Fold:
Amino acid sequence: MRQSLSLFLMSFLPLCAFAQEGTGTSAVKDITPQALSAILGSVEVIDVNEADNYAFAHVPGARLLPYDAITADVLPGDMATTLVFYCWSPECPAATMAASAAMVLGYTNVYCMQAGITGWQDAGFVTEP
Structure:
């Protein structure tokens, strides 16, 4: 039990550090649905939901990538590209995990829309089916 808890903490705590804004120069920043809407089209939006959820509703122009398959091969070549990750809702950790992975790879402008697709819809923004 103690070993399992130690392994969990060793793998989880670095992700928490990336997710907290203001913890240095390389933190994943939160973005609201309203702020994303204002810059949509000039950023790379990545949906990390399951394929059936993506098919049901996603931010216009977002592309689907599994949260655990974030590699330099599937992300833009320019490390300064603004990336915005989102999942289903604020309770879903997948977007933060994917955004943290992008930061580890060296991407410098990484955001997480913590509100998720449900927050996007609650704000009244349209989705693509």
